[in-house]
Fold this sequence. Notes:
Layout: H1 4-17, H2 21-33, H3 40-43, H4 47-64, E1 73-82, E2 89-98, H5 103-108, H6 124-134, H7 140-160, E3 168-173, E4 178-182
Amino acid sequence: MIDYGSLFATFETLVRASDSAETGWMALLAETERHGAVPPELRAWDVAAEVAQLRAKVEEVIRGAPLPPGTKFIWFGLFDARDEETDLPVAGFYLGGGPDENAELAIAEGRLEYLPESRYLISPLLDAIEAAAERDEYDYRLMNYALVFGAAALLARHATEGLLDGYSLVVGFDEGDYATIRPAQTER
């Protein structure tokens, strides 16, 4: 039986310790494999290219809707979604933020004051993990919960390095589980 709380914490640690998106991804996959099968298509994923695409989208979002003064944390939120055309599961993934020093409390209470209209993000990697979760040969919760969180945290961390370092970076599910992946590194 998998202790998902412990696995979530392990993924948080692996993401924080990752020197690059590529090495972080390999570490997440190795840990996932300790608990169940990993889809072969995920092993060959070009995580660096996905990080670059996500960074470009984050830059576009904050250029079009600048972070308000007083913003203290950046939130990368996850939720279950379905493709409108195919009705297949996809990862709901978006950018937000807030002014609270205690990001965890603000998130728990739904106080995200920065929710730009263009906040929704696309991640083919997260969508591929969601698709794998639907296949019988993979553990649904291992894919849909643990690996989706780990991948989103890894992508967010490396896509925002050098761009949003002055803010705490928090990644998690709208339903409640989240982690501070990077505390604010400098004063703004």
